[in-house]
Each structure stands twice: as C-alpha cells, then as structure tokens.
Amino acid sequence: MLLVSLSLLFFICSPDADRHLAVGWSYEGDDGPKNWPQTCKGKQQSPINIDDSEVKINKNLRDIKFVNYDKALNNPTLVNNGHSVKLDIEDDSNVPNIQAGGLKSEYMFQQLHFHWGSEDSKGSEHTLNNKVYPMEMHLVHYNSNYEKDEVYKHEDGLAVLAVFIEIDDNDNNAFSAFSENLEFVFGNGSYNSLSSDVILQALLPTNTSYYRYQGSLTTPPCSESVIWTVFANPVTIGIEQIKRFRNENLTDLVNNFRPIQDLNDRPVEKCYNSGIQQLPEIIKVVTSFVAVVSVYYIH
Q1: Which of 32, 162, 207, 248 is most deeply packed, by most CB within 10 A?
Q2: pLDDT tens for residues 73-132?
Q3: Which member of 20, 83, 138, 299 is catalytic?
Q4: pTM
Q5: Is 138 one of the catalytic residues?
Q6: Largest Cα–Cα separation, the chain
Q7: Residue 290 phi, psi (nearest 5)
C-alpha cells in the first residue's frame, strides 16, 4: 500500500508536461482523438506527414548544438504515465540542452518518451513521404527563458526532437536501459530508477539532418507551443527489444500514436546541411561517370 501511494505521489508531482494533460482521454473509443478537447482542433496541430517534394531547404537552419548530450543523465527514472513510457531526470548543472539550429533560445532537456505500434506497420506519429515507422521517440526540451509552467502559453515554449525508429535483427545497446526495465513499470503510475547510464547522444542518428516546422503537443491539451525537429534518418531497435514494448502487460500503451493532422499551409523546412551531406554521394556518381568516359576515349 505504501509503495502504491509513493508511486501515485511521484506521478502527480512529476514536473513535466503530464501535469498539463487533460483527463479522460485515450487513443481509441469514445475518448479517442476524434473526441479530444477543443484545444486539439487548432490550425497548427501535430503530428504531420512530411512530403519531401513540398519541403524547402532553409540556409538558416544549420547544425543543432547538443550540449551535455554526451554525458550520462542524472538519476534517470522510467515512468509509466498511462499513455506512454517516458524517462524523467533530476535537474543539475549538467542538464542536456540544445542550441542553434535555427532555435533562438537555449532549450533544456526535460524528458523523453516513446510511441509505438502492436505491429511493424504502425507506431510512429509523424510520417516521412507517407512512410510509417514502427516506433518514434520524442525528446522534450523547454525554453529556458520561461518558467516551466508557462512554456505551454508560448509558441516557442517547447522544442521537441522526433526520432524515427526502425527494427533491426540486432539489439541497440543505447535502448537496453529502457527495454530491460519495462517489466518494472507495467502499472499506470509505476516507476523505476535506472542503474545503467543513459546518454542521449547515443539515441540520436549519426546523420542529424532534420526537418523543422511549428506544431503542437500530440496529446491533450495539444498546446500549439512546439518547435518540431524531425530527424530525416532513423535509428534502430532490436526485434527482441521492441517485443518487450509490445508485452501483454503494456497493452494499454501499445498503439499510442495520434493520427496525422492537416498541415494547413504551414511551411516545412529542411536544414541546409542535409543538402551538403548528400554531396559525397553526388561526387561518387560524377567521378564514376568521368572514369567511364575516360576509359571509352582511351580505347
């Protein structure tokens, strides 16, 4: 009884976006997305499909600066909040943050969480050229210029990094801390402190080219206060690892993704470096062509 009470207390007092969620909602049935609060019916809602043919490269969107992303998180705690599995941390002087990359402020890391499906054909919230991934990870950061409780009132209050996750035969060690501890957070409101190190940099794709657009939280109250950064390249998770996310004891969380929302003429841009990073491949093609032509004329 004491353990349950402590779990509930932690869940209620956890200083993150969960405190701003509307009660009585789910991903299906009468409380599903079609019946979410009126605040979820705005013109800048997320997630969206990103269509490369409609995207423009913005030369002002350069590399994101990842600060303390290479350091182990301080006292990471895995939490089942009834809608996802998320990772909270304790604040300290080494809290990871992101800067630059078109962001006008410093954004402090707050938590990360996952969206996933019951099968490989569904799970991600965003889609890329209509491609659906089996899983998506969100790393949530708040604008250091605002109080945490005020960020939802500002269009630039939050910066969220979205990472597509695809399945591989081999385990990804970066996700082991999550998959190996899921059994301790089967119940809504349950949590477990992680003993192994979690390093955010290891969770990101090596090639960090990205898309950028203005949107919202993907859960009620769907506040339109998010600068979204969606990485173009996915990371992997092992078959056995994602099976643990699909465990029958977590069925209330599986298929926890919101349907695609209308873009409503919002611009979606791609970072300038994403074009630069394609140059080596172009050079290879040109070099091969020149080599073939040279051989032809020599003979």
Answers
A1: 162
A2: 999 999 999 999 999 999 888 999 999 999 999 999 999 999 999 999 999 999 999 999
A3: 83
A4: 0.85
A5: no
A6: 86
A7: -60, -40
